[in-house]
TrEMBL record:
PROSITE patterns associated with the record: ABC_TRANSPORTER_1, ABC_TRANSPORTER_2
Species this protein is from: Pararoseomonas baculiformis
Domain ABC transporter: 5-235
Keyword DNA repair: no
Keywords: ATP-binding, Nucleotide-binding, Transport
Protein's name according to its UniProt entry: ABC transporter ATP-binding protein
Coiled coil: none
Pfam families for this protein: ABC_tran (PF00005), TOBE_2 (PF08402)
Signal sequence segment: none
Amino acid sequence: MTPRLSLRGVSRRFGSVAALDHVSLDVPPGEFLALLGGSGSGKSTLLRVVAGFEAPDAGAVELDGADLLALPPHRRPVNMMFQSYALFPHMSVAANIAYGLKREGRPRAEIARRLEEAVAMLGLAGLESRRPHALSGGQRQRVALARALVKRPRLLLLDEPLGALDANLRERTGFELRAIQRESGAAFIMVTHDQAEALALADRVAVMDRGRLVQVAPPREVYDRPATRFVAEFLGAANILPGTRRPDGALDCPGAGCTIRAADPLPEGAEAIALRPERIRIGARPGENSATGTVEEAAFRGESSLLLIRLSGGALLRVSHAEEDGVPPPRGSRVRVNWDAASVVPLLG
Ligand SMILES: Nc1ncnc2c1ncn2[C@@H]1O[C@H](COP(=O)(O)OP(=O)(O)OP(=O)(O)O)[C@@H](O)[C@H]1O
């Protein structure tokens, strides 16, 4: 199937900064892709190139097989929703939503019908005559989405769409966004700083670092099998244990004070492994990876406790201890920890 959006070798420099460095990406129809990366990694530049607000120095951008770069922004079947929402303050909700259709010169009856559809889809009935200042943050966000979706874009670009909402509303609105995306059938690309949000909402997560896409994969894979150390660190809370690869494919890890084995021999070039805190157990289990250490901190977090364990080699290990596994060892206790070979993720680069 032709991918809805296809980027091939897209680059964009600003002086000495490579905002986009040979980016290639396919987004199939109806996919919800989260673009995740630190500040300045190139996320907004990527959206701006697709929307047409920025021209790449090199590369190709196609939508449903047609060259997108040949079209000016307003002719592209792509819409962009900005973090600020950019609603017109002097216009009603209805006028804001219908604005783009009016500008396209659509017949009045069609505008009325599509406006009604968008209002229903976004749960905005009853608010049509209000001005943006008389709406809550969540309602404003839904008006901005309605305005973007009413034009039935094949691709919707969202730059930190939930950034202006408080934590509670953020979660609920995120789920709503997901439902709206399914209903609309459009492909969504959502920029976010927030890794939990990206993992929760997206079909695939694309992780950017310094203008490059370092991994594009389903949330579980990015989380469980980070391709690089950057991804493992960016997705938060993984233990990274550096070491020296042995000829038999195990890793001598001085910080852990042990040799670590993965399910398969570590590939050549592996200089570290990642280990999720929830994959580590307290106690000895024969035949598995194990190390000894001292509990330095124990923090109760509801369904689990976070333990910081100083291993005999000096590395500090984050361990998530589930409530159902009983009372965690107290601060100061000497413990043995173990983890399966299958939980060991080799890290390259
Ligand atoms: N118009 C511009 N002129 C000069 N440099 C720019 C311009 N636009 C972006 N850059 C630079 O390109 C790099 C990527 O910027 P971009 O805004 O795409 O990052 P981002 O990942 O969206 O960051 P943030 O999360 O902070 O919005 C940054 O180093 C930025 O300073």
